[in-house]
Amino acid sequence: METSIGLGVAYHLIGALAAASFYIPITLIKNWNWEVSWLINGIASWVIMPVLVSALLLPDLITFYAAIPLVTMSKTFTYGALWGVGGLTFGMTLRFLGISVGYGVAIGITLVVGTLLPPLLDGQLLVLTGTTKGVMALAGVGVAVAGIALTSFAGHLKEKSAGTTSTELNVRKGLMIALFCGITSSFMAFAINAAEPIQQMALAQGVDPLYQVMPGYVVIMAGGFTTNLIYCLYQMWRNRTLNKLRQDPTHRLRNTMLSVLAGVVWYLQFFFYGWGHVQMTALQLGFVSWTFHMSMLVLCGGAWGFLLKEWQGCAGRPLRYQLTGMLVIVASTVIIGIS
Length: 339
Prior knowledge:
Blueprint: H1 5-21, H2 23-27, H3 34-57, H4 61-66, H5 70-97, H6 99-121, H7 125-128, H8 132-162, H9 171-185, H10 187-194, H11 196-204, H12 214-239, H13 241-247, H14 252-282, H15 288-307, H16 316-338
Helix pairs in contact: 1-14, 1-15, 3-12, 3-14, 5-6, 5-9, 5-10, 5-12, 6-8, 6-9, 6-15, 6-16, 8-16, 14-15, 15-16
């Protein structure tokens, strides 16, 4: 396996671009309740794609997963289920805040939680304050909080400038969901760490080191899919969604294809994140993966928001706050990465 920092950066950038792009097909869906498109998206991204990729990598798929220790399986699945709640609420965050603000706020919170929670759980948070790199990391977290505040305020100004004509735009509701989303989304980092024994098993089976993370995704995303399935089925029952689908079959094929496309693109972010993380880890830079990936998400998500004209008609002030907030969040990831 060829390793270089350039490849690691390129893979993370492609993964971030995929993550920032997946929701666009969902915005093109017509006449469907949100839970239908989200469930089909989840089937494609969290069931079909990881199983398909692992089936291509492993000589005997069923035997491989049957041999995973129960402790590893349950721990990885549980973290994946918690991350799945983050994935679910991430879609809702984009729905209520839009792509530009939604990515900035949700990813910023994920960055903060993903940085602070591991040392907190390990009892090392106070130790960090006694080291230069620890203080620098915490300073980076503080900068991220400032960036989150700026993008949140930009969303508030955007809502005011939009008036009350938009039924989807709801900054207060979106920020509450984004907070919850950011906390639960950070469990993907924990899930990948918990799946380390699965990676070692894959390497022992002759899987190329570049693909070693992929088999673990099957367990992680099975957990994520479980939480999303429960929520979507509840919403379908509550909204009588299946009756509506039977009564109005228009756009059914088109909507299904758009949902599947969204799911495939959503999975590609983790595919290329795995490649990037392996490259960084081989160069003893694995700690950079999470922060760098998050910063690229903010940039790509914000860029899509502008390209999709989410800010069209807004005065210069909301735009300035949004751009400043995005740059501040990116700066925070650089500070944390350097630390």
